Amino acid sequence: MSAAEELPPSAEERVFRAHLERAEFLAGVRERRWRLISLEWPTAMIAVAAAARPGAPREFFFRFDLTGYPRQGPNAFPWDVETDANLAADKRPKGERVGLAFRADWQGMYLPVDRSAISGHNWRSWRWDDTKEITFYLRLLYELLNDDDYTGI
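^ that's the sequence the OP posted. Answer follows.
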């Protein structure tokens, strides 16, 4: 199939792209809280800024599986862009609450907004539903990485 014959974007992709154009997402980009690195549907790579900590990076990368978006919540993985793989445990953000969210023994982020963590939990706050947008998830990641609880890697 040639580029001219490519299929149009799915409804899910169109919704996601529309969310990237909304004021809240763009404000986060302008304020250097997050930035879109790439989008190859249904995968997006987004960097989220982190507070300065000795020996720690100033941003972390997340590989989002957006299958079913926004009906289903994203499934995000802390990502090592150099190795193109899940971020190793020794490179993940640390802290009491932060460390729990960035568990290396979990298939994604251990957060109520993540598709992998919703199943089997009765989380009421921060739970994903189809009225949410990607910025809902990004705000939570940004808050974790800029909280006093975040101690670095």
